[in-house]
């Protein structure tokens, strides 16, 4: 019989070699598959033993099928009672299209109708449809007016071995993991007595490695195949092949001596990996340990082995700079502890591997789903003296020439700001803000810590060079401030949408207390993109504090209510602060309590500010502060907020709640903001932006705009 075995793109050559080893004849590669010839035993062996295939298709007929009528006739030319009982079930997988069939659902329906109509006409019975567990799975491929009708003998894709019920983020499929292992030379007990995956996730690479090392057929774990209830199924032949596979597995497990080690920093996903290994029957062969990459060491002390991993890649799982730091660590660990080993990294972004400072000896292109990916293979040589930064360099010495220029600029800025910082009595401020174009970062000082915010580089900037400069900036900041490296917190800023800037980034859950003009405030440098305190709005908060004595104050879009705390310390009679987030309102409550402000006079309300403003005006205020986000489409909101489009409405609604002699302080951070001219006709408007830029933000005058708005007359 003729067979066609599908596979992920990039695996065709390996699959052809695998099929030849299984006994296939006349093999021929095509895109994402291999055609071959053989008997039913070969088809069963492929289902049982293929580590690389997806589906085993047995073509029945190929002919022209440009129209629905031609397709119906083609399907009807097959005697379906040879394959399916009249009371059985089927499902149809249809792909491709033609001029007359431009919808895969329609094509599948015509195929199903032709089968059902034929059997009903011959027997009076009508087969049913079962998409999950059919007795017969029919596959139709339509290309350039030619349709190939085939039986799917595999049923569910062969990559689903049956051991992995849950995977981690961005999982690698089992057959792709097997291909990566084969390309890396596994299993070779002489060359690789041990295999290590330092970022093993749900354990797929290690489990596939164990199955290969023990000569275990990947299909042995599956309960069902597409041929299980096919009328052409030879149960006696299948049972013989299964028994042969079990005997090979038994002998393989008894003789295997490979050592498999898996590490990951996520304890939950490691637990999942252990469960997967248990279901695959290889749990005794793999040691899983909870460990971060920075703690990786060669525990075996062997001078040869295989380190193979599929680390996170792309912004889907993390920011590029953080990932480059991860890859840099991996390269450093390989050179320091795994000399003489072979290493392989599978990634959809090979640029990340450049920071490993290792030269790939071989590269193989494969596809992880739709992701165009590469496997890079390295021979790790012993680290030469001076190849990597020494402990002294990591601690602060040995900056590059440009890095030293950055350090000098940071020192200069700190010196210029020192007298002002002391006079203003503030403990957090910005010391550097992209002063040098090569170093597009901001450095914010907090007690005992610094936050380095990297502005996402344009696409044209080489990512590796940008990463190297960022490492310079981090090292220089630690050196200039005389802080340990773990007191420098790295964040990446890019164009934000909605409340993205407020979203949780981590879960450290600890706070620092800072001081600003006599007001005590809590900040969190770790868990969110922003710290809970917008440093550039410090002058606006100071103005609120100066104006608040004896007044009723409203704070809209209050965030952590730092402005409210200033108003309260300034002697406000009462305050009302409104925000949608319960998390930030709880933070706001802590800020108010920290300054001894009574909750009865200083009220916090969880509400959509736009909805609250749209309600009929009731309570009025002497002083209103409004600093809305540039854009928000939060699920908790009834509508989308665009500050440029909506600010006129926001201001007019707020002015309805402002008493005749009151002041509205309206600000936002949209760099291209333009105030609606009609507001100047309706109200007394003063642009006070220049007055709301302290010395630490004078270098970035477009960071925000600020207006004081009052009623006319």
Automatic annotation (TrEMBL):
It is an enzyme of class 2 (transferase). GO terms for molecular function: 23S rRNA (guanine(2445)-N(2))-methyltransferase activity. PANTHER family: RIBOSOMAL RNA LARGE SUBUNIT METHYLTRANSFERASE K/L, RIBOSOMAL RNA LARGE SUBUNIT METHYLTRANSFERASE K_L. The gene is rlmKL. Its EC number is 2.1.1.173, 2.1.1.264. Belongs to the methyltransferase superfamily. RlmKL family. It is found in: Cytoplasm. Coiled coil: none annotated. Gene3D superfamilies: 3.30.2130.30, RNA methyltransferase domain (HRMD) like, Vaccinia Virus protein VP39. It catalyses: guanosine(2445) in 23S rRNA + S-adenosyl-L-methionine = N(2)-methylguanosine(2445) in 23S rRNA + S-adenosyl-L-homocysteine + H(+); guanosine(2069) in 23S rRNA + S-adenosyl-L-methionine = N(2)-methylguanosine(2069) in 23S rRNA + S-adenosyl-L-homocysteine + H(+). It comes from Marinobacterium alkalitolerans. Keywords: Cytoplasm, Methyltransferase, RNA-binding, rRNA processing, S-adenosyl-L-methionine, Transferase. Specifically methylates the guanine in position 2445 (m2G2445) and the guanine in position 2069 (m7G2069) of 23S rRNA. This is Ribosomal RNA large subunit methyltransferase K/L. Residues 42-153 form the THUMP domain. CDD domains: AdoMet_MTases, THUMP_AdoMetMT. SMART domains: THUMP. It comes from the Bacteria.
